[in-house]
Design goal:
Blueprint (H helix, E strand, L loop, with lengths): L4 E9 L5 H9 L7 H6 L6 E7 L2 E7 L7 H8 L4 E7 L6 H12 L4 E7 L6 H15 L9 E3 L8 H14 L10 E3 L2 E5 L3 E7 L4 E3 L3 E5 L3 E10 L2 E3 L1 E3 L3 E7 L11 E3 L7 E10 L6 E2 L2 E7 L2 E9 L4 E2 L4 E12 L6 E6 L5 E9 L10 H12 L2 H10 L5 E2 H8 L3 H13 L3 E6 L2 E5 H21 L6 E2 H7 L5 H13 L3 E4 L2 E4 L8 H17 L6 H6 L5 H13 L3 E5 L2 E4 H18 L2 E3 H8 L3 H13 L3 E4 L2 E4 L1
Helix pairs in contact: 7-8, 11-13, 14-16
Length: 634
């Protein structure tokens, strides 16, 4: 039912304290699915069972309690909404009780219940002592004040009360968001006869339907959903908060490993570098910079190098900003919690929360890094958005924002619109969508104006600077930022743009007397020459100015269309080119549209040295078209 709330309950506790037996007593399902588990009487891997209570559907994740199997426990702990801490009355709090409890606290599980199992094996006085010990154990934690329910899986005593408390806790648990991007960490993969590959996991966010295309990370492979099961039965759609089995088409189950993630396609990117806030348990040893540890997030596991960003050592019981550099890629998002276990011997030492899943390399003790991460961690969406944009002054695309935050496209556009109105962001484009901090555009405008002024100072005879050269001289801003800054300057009438050239607005080239005489000399030389022009180098070599200025004066005449460049070192006066066009037009009227090269030479009085470049120029200008050894006059 669509209005049914789906809540994941995770068991935690020491080996042989009756977790699996309690789950079976509540649900009627033995979560121990492996023959070895049933034979040895312990849970080695994750077990699952389901139970309906009024308007709530509970999915139980029964995790192993033995120290050797804590890594499997971590694979199932990621999606837990309510923890059921199981403590046997005859043994009370034991080592794995403490480690599981630490893990639950580090993962930020918001609420839970303590079930005192095997209560039929002890007297009332002893049970009271266990209760007092438990109250002291959980004091100051999320379980302080939580129900402590004595139960017996063998006799059924206390089970009804436990169900009432489970229902109360489940109703109070926050509902996972089915409107976000789909994300399902995989904790099991197997093949089923007649169906093929099946994976299971707790659906963390979003929803998935039969026939959907999804993406498998970190392989970046697209696969199709052939079928879905949740709560032990087939369904057409699964939503956030449900234990879900997904039958996949297009991949062999042997290609899939625990820790991989199914997601909405084309949104997310795996990472090997994470900025996070880490917390060290009081029982752990001091953590030195660049310590290696086991990183666990949802069902993923990797070796991580922990780089402390603001200190050289982290004391037990303290927290700090750190960058985790991972040996293998994982898919995480800001807000995801993780566990850190000592490299050797392997014990839980702490955990943390992801702040930036696409972190850059940082310099040690850079105050800007701490300020940025504090804003992203604790700030509003708007403040985080601005911080992300300011960390990417060349521009930030929609795809990058979604991959880095997990936000939906509609909310990104809405936040961006509000920030643009507040003049904190500049919208660089709608399709494709990209933004940049307003400060980056303003800074680019200042640099562009300075670069244009400097160019004119060094090149007084050139009309303007090409855009690409200007962009490089002005700090090489992102293309969108550069264009926005340039448009601002044009609107402010600080610069003008003609074609590809940018110049100071209203600027005119003023020639010195010797430059003006040189310009007149060049024009006269080519005007007198008609179609039998001298070489450019010969004309420039006779001028009373140095070669660099002479070349720039020639460029002025070419830009003013006084001279026409036909080929390298072959320039004609515009009057000569105009007469040539008249000759060609007159010939067409009297002799038709076929023009052999020999006839062209006779008509113009030029040698082959000039004839071929002139004809090729006429072809480019669409006055003629080559046809074999002739030209067709168009």
């Amino acid at each position: 039912m669509e209005n049914t709330k789906h809540v994941i309950v995770g068991t935690a506790g020491h080996i042989d304290h009756g977790k699996s037996a309690l789950v079976e007593a509540l649900t009627g399902t033995n979560p121990d699915r492996l023959e070895e588990e049933k034979r040895r009487g312990i849970t080695i891997d994750l077990g699952f069972a389901f139970m309906g209570l009024e308007d709530v559907r509970l999915g139980f994740v029964d995790v192993p309690g033995h120290e050797r199997f804590v890594r499997n426990m971590l694979a199932g702990a990621g999606g837990i909404d309510v923890v059921l801490l199981v403590i046997a009355a005859d043994e009370s709090i034991m080592p794995q009780t403490r480690e599981h409890f630490d893990i639950c606290r580090l993962l930020g599980i918001p609420r839970g219940i303590v079930a005192v199992t095997k209560s039929d094996l002890v007297g009332a006085d002893f049970l009271d002592l266990v209760r007092l010990e438990i109250e002291d154990f959980v004091r100051g934690s999320f379980l302080e004040g939580a129900p402590i329910v004595p139960v017996s899986a063998r006799t059924g005593a206390g089970l009804d009360l436990l169900k009432e408390e489970l229902l109360r806790a489940a109703r109070a648990a926050p509902t996972k968001d089915a409107t976000r991007h789909f994300r399902l960490p995989i904790d099991r993969s197997f093949a089923t006869k007649g169906f093929g590959t099946v994976v299971t996991g707790t659906l963390m966010a979003g929803a998935v339907q039969v026939k959907d295309e999804v993406e498998l990370h970190p392989l970046r492979q697209h696969v199709r959903v052939r079928g879905l099961h949740s709560g032990g039965k087939a369904t057409e759609r699964a939503v956030a908060g449900q234990r879900t089995a997904v039958n996949l088409a297009g991949i062999e189950h042997s290609e899939i490993k625990r820790g991989m993630v199914l997601t909405t396609p084309g949104i997310f990117e795996p990472t090997r570098r994470i900025d996070a806030r880490i917390s060290l348990l009081s029982s752990a040893r001091p953590l030195r910079n660049r310590t290696r540890a086991h990183f666990h997030q949802a069902s993923a596991e990797a070796i991580a190098e922990i780089v402390l960003l603001e200190q050289s050592e982290l004391a037990p019981g303290q927290d700090a900003l750190a960058q985790l550099r991972l040996q293998d890629p994982v898919l995480v998002l800001p807000g995801d919690r993780f566990i850190l276990r000592q490299f050797s011997p392997v014990v839980t030492i702490g955990g943390g929360v992801v702040i930036d899943s696409r972190a850059r390399w940082h310099r040690r003790n850079d105050p800007n890094v701490g300020e940025f991460l504090e804003t992203v961690e604790h700030g509003s969406q708007e403040e985080s958005f601005v911080a992300l944009a300011e960390a990417a002054p060349r521009g930030l695309t929609l795809e990058t924002i979604m991959a880095r935050t997990g936000w939906m496209e509609a909310e990104i556009r809405q936040i961006a619109t509000e920030l643009v109105e507040k003049k904190q962001l500049r919208l660089l484009g709608e399709q494709p969508f990209s933004v940049a901090p307003e400060t980056a555009v303003n800074e680019s405008s200042t640099k562009i104006k300075a670069a244009v002024d400097e160019f004119h100072r060094l090149n007084p005879l050139l009309p303007g600077i090409p855009k690409q050269e200007l962009r490089a001289r002005a700090g090489n801003a992102g293309a969108g930022v550069f264009q926005a800054a340039l448009e601002d300057l044009v609107k402010a009438r600080a610069v003008s743009v003609t074609g590809d050239l940018v110049q100071r607005a209203g600027r005119e080239i003023k020639l010195a007397p010797d430059e003006a005489r040189a310009k007149e000399t060049i024009e006269q030389e080519f005007a007198r020459a008609g179609l039998t022009v001298p070489s450019v180098s010969a004309v420039l070599g006779k001028l009373p100015v140095e070669a660099r200025r002479a070349e720039k004066i020639l460029q002025i005449l070419l830009r003013e269309n006084v001279l026409v460049k036909v080929a390298d070192d072959l320039v004609f006066h515009r009057s000569a080119v105009a007469r040539l066009r008249e000759l060609i037009a007159g010939y067409r009227k009297s002799h038709g549209d076929r023009l052999p090269i020999t006839t062209f030479k006779e008509l113009t009085g030029v040698t082959r040295k000039y004839a071929i470049p002139l004809l090729e120029y006429l072809d480019r200008e669409h006055v003629t078209r080559r046809a074999g050894d002739e030209r067709v006059i168009l």
